[in-house]
Amino acid sequence: MIIVPIIVAYSIIGHGVYGPFLKEYSTFYDSFQSVLKFIIGDCKLLEMIDINPLWTFIFVISLSMLIIYLIISSFSAILIDAYDTIIISQGFPDDEDDIKWTVKVAILWMLDIIPNKYLLKINLDKNSKK
């Protein structure tokens, strides 16, 4: 919900600056699609620079920074929320119950998707941590 007003604002700016010159920005709907394409990396940047280099610089840098900032912020918020949920439900790890990471435990952790009967054939067992 935070990103939609930004995309709409940049669509209006793109329509106002590049609308008379580029077909991709001629209507608001086309401008909205062009901004979405710009976010995923599909844009006609050279044509935009030919029309107005200053506005293109401001448009590209500010939109890129806002999108990157919002995506990183959203990811970190999800990560912090997940960490809080885990700590609340599981508690902090105690020194007594702390599992020591050996090479075997790390391999078992990486091979967790493999059923135990196949791990037993290569002398690895999920149930034994040492």
Secondary structure: elements and pairs:
Blueprint: H1 3-18, H2 28-40, H3 45-51, H4 53-90, H5 103-110, H6 116-121
Helix pairs in contact: 1-2, 1-4, 3-4
Summarize the structure in words.
It is a single chain. This protein is an all-alpha fold. 68% of the residues lie in helices and 0% in strands. The protein has six helices and no strands. The protein has helices at residues 3-18, 28-40, 45-51, 53-90, 103-110, 116-121. The model has no long low-confidence stretch (mean pLDDT 82).
What shape does the CA trace take?
elongated
Query: Which percent band covers the strand fraction?
Result: under 5%
Helix content: 55-70%
N-to-C SSE string, H for helix and E for strand: HHHHHH
Q: Could you name the key traits of this structure?
A:
130 residues, single chain, Helix Hairpins, elongated, mainly alpha, 2 domains
Short description:
Helices cover 68% and strands 0% of the residues. The protein is mostly helical. The longest helix is centred in the middle third of the chain and has 38 residues, at 53-90.
